[in-house]
Write a structure and sequence with these properties.
The protein is α+β, with helices and mostly antiparallel strands. The protein has one domain. The chain is built from 4 helices and 6 strands; from the N terminus they run αβαβββαββα. Strands 1, 2, 3, 4, 5 and 6 form a 6-stranded antiparallel beta sheet that branches. A hairpin with a 2-residue loop joins strand 3 and strand 4. The radius of gyration is 15 Å and the shape is globular. The model has no long low-confidence stretch (mean pLDDT 89).
Length: 164
């Protein structure tokens, strides 16, 4: 990992937080869908991104998230509601993450070439030099994607991440 990466990530999170008014009891987090090798971006996965764009177009405009494109895969910057009973990741966010993973599989079926497995990761800044992350799951392009399982694993990983 690039030694300057934590500062770049911290700046990205600061920009996200600066353009939104956080509600009390929320924490800004990143949800990243990435490939460990190869690429997962528009140039190499146009079919997947067509499907992702369709899903993004259906989201309400007031949804409190930012969609970032990176060569290694898409990233969602979101506010997570941290309440006394636990934490809550919006259903629309879980649906979008599931749609991204499914779009990757469908894109490969339609001719997208990179087919390396994906990692679903949650992360947040701890301070300027430290990024904390939890790997939620690793999934191949031909594995079954279950929305409820993804939501459960995301929420569990986010709880662990916020405890640290």
């Amino acid at each position: 990992m690039d030694p300057g990466w934590p500062a770049v990530f911290s700046e990205r999170m600061r920009r996200f937080e600066a353009h939104r008014v956080p509600r009390p009891g929320t924490a800004a987090v990143s949800i990243k869908v990435r490939v460990r090798s190869g690429c997962f971006h528009r140039e190499h996965s146009p079919e997947a991104y067509r499907l992702i764009d369709q899903h993004l177009g259906k989201l309400r405009r007031d949804t409190d998230l930012a969609f970032e494109e990176h060569e290694s895969g898409p990233e969602l910057l979101v506010y997570l509601a941290v309440v006394t009973a636990g934490l809550t990741l919006a259903k629309s966010v879980v649906d979008l993450v599931t749609a991204i993973i499914k779009a990757r599989s469908e894109g490969i079926k339609r001719g997208d070439h990179p087919s390396e497995p994906l990692e679903l990761i949650v992360r947040r800044t701890h301070n300027e030099q430290e990024v904390r992350e939890e790997i939620v799951l690793k999934i191949g392009h031909n594995e079954h994607v279950d929305r409820k399982a993804i939501g459960h694993r995301l929420n569990s990983a986010l709880r662990n991440l916020l405890k640290k």
